[in-house]
Amino acid sequence: RKEVEQDPGPFNVPEGATVAFNCTYSNSASQSFFWYRQDCRKEPKLLMSVYSSGNEDGRFTAQLNRASQYISLLIRDSKLSDSATYLCVVNMFSGGYNKLIFGAGTRLAVHP
Amino acid sequence: NAGVTQTPKFQVLKTGQSMTLQCAQDMNHNSMYWYRQDPGMGLRLIYYSASEGTTDKGEVPNGYNVSRLNKREFSLRLESAAPSQTSVYFCASSEIWGPRAEAFFGQGTRLTVV
User: Fold this and answer.
1) Chain B residue closest to A95 (CA)?
2) Is B95 in a helix, a strand, or coil?
3) Cα(A60)–Cα(A47) distance, rounded to whole angstroms?
4) pLDDT tens column, A34-52
5) CA separation for the pair A107, A86 (Å, rounded)
6) Cα Rg of chain B, angstroms
7) Which of A43, A61, A59 shows the shortest CA–CA distance to A51?
8) Residues of chain A with pLDDT under 70
9) Rounded CA separation B89/B46 (Å)
10) Between A8, A46, A104, which is nearest B102 by CB?
């Protein structure tokens, strides 16, 4: 079983739609969580961190459920510019080291 | 505002050739990473270095070696390239402590082994 699993998509949605991505992780000792965004043929960039209480950044909302080892990302009022691959990332902090483990990514395509 | 710089950006190798991918960061980060990304596989960790002088294997280390030359630089070496190593390689860096271990990535090296 992969350490971080995501639905690969693609999710094809119209502009203005709300879309949700899910991610599960296998190691209960994981300590911190992130969503990264990757545009085609570019490097990944941090979209937002995910906090235990859930957090929001404009149209983006991230949720964490430690008991179920589950992370989600909700995008409201989708824009064409949201089209990208969204990577779920888990920080496996052990032995004093941060080791970031990436999911395979979920592809989003927003159309007019 | 260089951040993380990787060289080269593109490379074509013949099977059996060797090469070194260079990575340097100017953010004074302790941790550095090498990932490879293949279609449908996401990023897979090859090696990481928690601090200067230390390196450790990640998920897919076979066929690679690394050197943490100093705090800024972390290189990845392919001693005898194989077609299975055709991939996009990303170097990244982050702070070693704290929950917010945001990783900053270089622009990637697109490697083709023929």
Assistant:
1) B50
2) coil
3) 9
4) 999 999 889 999 999 888 8
5) 6
6) 13
7) A61
8) 94-98
9) 9
10) A46
